[in-house]
Amino acid sequence: MKAILLLEDGTVFEGTSFGAIGQKCGEVVFNTAMSGYQEILTDPSYNEQIITMTYPLIGNYGTNKADWESRKIFAAGFIVKENCNYPSNFRNTASLSDYLNANNVVGLEGIDTRALVRHIRTKGAMRGIISSTEFSTTNMRKTLDRYPGLVGRDIVKDVTTEKVYRWEQGVVDVLSGDECAPEKKFKVVAFDYGIKQNILRLLRSHGCDVQVVPASTTAKQVLARKPDGVFLSNGPGDPAPVDYAIETVRKLLGKVPIFGICLGHQILALALGAKTYKLKFGHRGANHPVKNLRTGKIEITSQNHGFCVDMDSLKEKEVELTHLNLNDNTNEGFRCKDKPAFSVQYHPEASPGPHDSNYLFDDFIKLMQRK
Fold first, then answer.
1. By three-state DSSP, how is residue 314 classified?
2. Residues designated catalytic
3. What are phi and psi for residue 339, nearest 5 degrees?
4. What distance in Å separates the CA atoms of residue 96 and residue 141, rounded to the nearest whole number?
5. Percent with pLDDT over 70 in the chain
6. Dihedral over Cα of 286, 288, 293, 296: its sign
C-alpha cells in the first residue's frame, strides 16, 4: 500500500506503507543508531516527531516487551529504507510492522532515506505529514498548515504521569534474567517530564528508593517527601514553555542534590537563568562523541534532543562546564559551583547506546552521600 511524506517546504517522498494505516503530523527528524529502534520509538522525548532511521535495514530482530522505555509509542511516525518482515531473535514476540500497527503508528518504507536526511541536514528539521490514507498533497498541505510545530509549546504535559508511583525494578541481565536491586539507601524523587524506564532501573540498581512524580509537582510537595535527591528526567519539545517545572527547580536549588538528563539538563539551566535555543537538526543517535572536560576522556554517547543550552548564557552563571559535544562544540553538561546540582544533555542510561557514561549515576549517589 502506498504512503507519502510531505514536508513543509513542499518536498514529497513516496514509498510503501507498513504498520498502521492513517495520517499524522509531526517534526521530521533522523536518528543515526544502527539498532535500538524499539527503545527509540517508546522514548517519550520523540513525542510529536516523525523519526527517520539512517541505517538501511530496520526490524531484523523484531520487538519484545522488555525493551519498552515507556507505556507506549510516542513517536508520530516511523520512516525506514527497508523494513524486515521476517525478524529472527530469541527475544522476538512481534515484527516491527505488527508492533507499529498495534500502537497505531504509521510507517513508511522504500524511500531514499539518505536523500531525506541530507535534505534535513541542509534545510533543518521541519514539520511534515505522513499518510497512508490521503495522497492529495493539496489536502495534506491544508492539514499540515494547521499543525503548530514544537517551538513555544509545552508538550511535556502530554507525556508525564498523572499520579505518583514507586519504581521497583532494577537492571535485568538479558541473558541470565538476574536483576540488580540492592538495598534501598537513598530516597529519590524523580520528575517525569517523559522519563525513560532505564533511568529508573539504573537509579534502583544504585540503591535508590525511587518515587516518580508528575511534571507539575511543586517544590513544597517534593520537599514534604524528604528526599535525599531529586532527579530531572528527559522529555520532549521546547523547554522554555515548561515554566512550572523551571520555577519548581529554581526553588529546589540548594535545598537538595539535583541530577538532570536531557530536558532536565535544559530545565536546570533555565532555572539558573540561562537560555536555550533550537538546533538546526538536533542530535539523535547512539554514537555521538562527547569530551569530559574534567578528565579529558572522550565518551561515545546516546543522544536525543532538538534544543540546546546557550553556552555563553551559561558561562555567566556560577557553574563549571563539564562536557562538550565534539561534533559541533555545543554544551553537553555542567555542574553548579555553589550548589549540589549537575546535569548532562545526553543519555548516560543509553537504551539504546553505549554505557560509557554510567559513572554519572555514581556521581549522583556521592552527591547524596555528602548531603
1. helix
2. 262, 347, 349
3. -140, 150
4. 29
5. 100
6. positive
| Positive or negative torsion for Cα 231, 225, 340, 243 | positive
Pairing of strands 82-83, 57-58: parallel
Residue 90 exposed, middle or buried by CB count within 10 Å (0-12, 13-18, 19+): exposed
For the chain, which residues make up each domain, given as ranges?
A: 2-145, 156-369
Within 13 Å of residue 155, how many CA atoms lie on the same side as its CB?
22
Look at residue 234 in the predicted model and tell me its pLDDT.
Answer: 98
CATH for the stretch 156-369: 3.40.50.880
- CATH number given to 2-145: 3.50.30.20
Give the per-residue SS3 of 184-249. Answer: CCEEEEEEECCCCHHHHHHHHHCCEEEEEEECCCCHHHHHHCCCCEEEECCCCCCCCCCHHHHHHH
User: What is the phi/psi pair of residue 365, to 5°?
Assistant: -60, -45
Q: Rg for the chain (alpha carbons), in Å?
A: 20
Give the total residue count for the chain. 371
Burial class (CB in 10 A: 0-12, 13-18, 19+), 220: exposed
Give the other-Cβ count within 10 Å of 273's Cβ: 12
Average of per-residue pLDDT across 14-22 = 98
- The pLDDT of residue 170 is 95
